[in-house]
Design brief:
Keywords: DNA-binding
GO molecular function, one term: DNA-binding transcription factor activity
GO biological process, one term: negative regulation of DNA-templated transcription
Distance between the termini: 56 Å
Oligomer: single chain
Number of domains: 2
Protein name: Transcriptional regulator, TetR family
Strand content: under 5%
Number of helices: 10
InterPro entries: DNA-bd_HTH_TetR-type_CS, Homeodomain-like_sf, HTH-type_TetR-like_transc_reg, HTH_TetR, Tet_transcr_reg_TetR-rel_C_sf, Tscrpt_reg_YcdC_C
Length: 205
């Protein structure tokens, strides 16, 4: 089936592909790309190994499909920034969305971080193309808002990098965060308040 990418999929086929990708997410986020096997993916998906190979030709193909879907999800909040909105509100909404994604999709965040740390062999073209273009569009917008006096002036690229690192840290280093805070803390609620204060003070005119 993987040899016919243009062939329309039935509803059941689409469901099975998603089941396999969810099983792969479990296997890859637990064992890494090199440590994960098709047998582990099949077991996590609750399907047979031949069934997995019916939908995907290799572990590499599964990994590529999974990461491409994750990147689409990861970029959605950046795409959603409204050029006609109130600048500070738009940035703070983006920060909140990224933090919520770390809370709701910690395995996905760790898998994406792991891929980037490996040199992003499956994402190089996307990162240097689509992601870079989207970031540059956002940087242009941020600079316009700063030139108009609607945001305090900071370096826009590093503003975006800081948002990524400050929000994804809570997923990528979840065990460390929980160990340091101890019981009785909601790290995402506390982080949301802290990040709102920090970026509001940094960017408010």
């Amino acid at each position: 089936m993987s040899d016919n990418p243009d062939q329309p999929l039935t509803r059941i086929q689409r469901q099975n592909r998603q089941i396999i990708l969810q099983g792969a997410l479990t296997a890859f986020s637990t064992n890494g790309f090199r440590g994960a096997t098709i047998d582990q993916i099949a077991e996590a998906a609750g399907l047979s190994k031949p069934n997995v190979f019916y939908y995907f030709g290799s572990k590499d193909e599964i990994h590529r499909n999974l990461l491409t879907g994750l990147l689409d999800m990861w970029l959605a909040p950046l795409v959603a920034i409204n050029p006609d909105g109130q600048p500070l509100d738009e940035v703070l909404t983006y920060v909140r969305a990224k933090l919520d994604m770390s809370r709701d999709y910690p395995r996905e965040s760790r898998l994406f971080a792991y891929e980037v740390m490996r040199g992003a062999p499956h994402l190089t073209e996307i990162l240097s193309g689509r992601l870079r273009n989207l970031v540059e569009d956002t940087v242009t917008l941020l600079r316009r808002w700063m030139d108009e006096g609607r945001l305090a002036r900071v370096e826009p690229h590093h503003l975006i990098f800081s948002i990524w690192s400050m929000t994804q840290h809570y997923a990528d280093f979840e065990v460390q965060v929980q160990a340091v805070l101890g019981p009785g803390h909601d790290p995402y609620a506390e982080a949301g308040e802290f990040l709102d204060q920090m970026y509001r003070r940094m960017l408010a005119v």
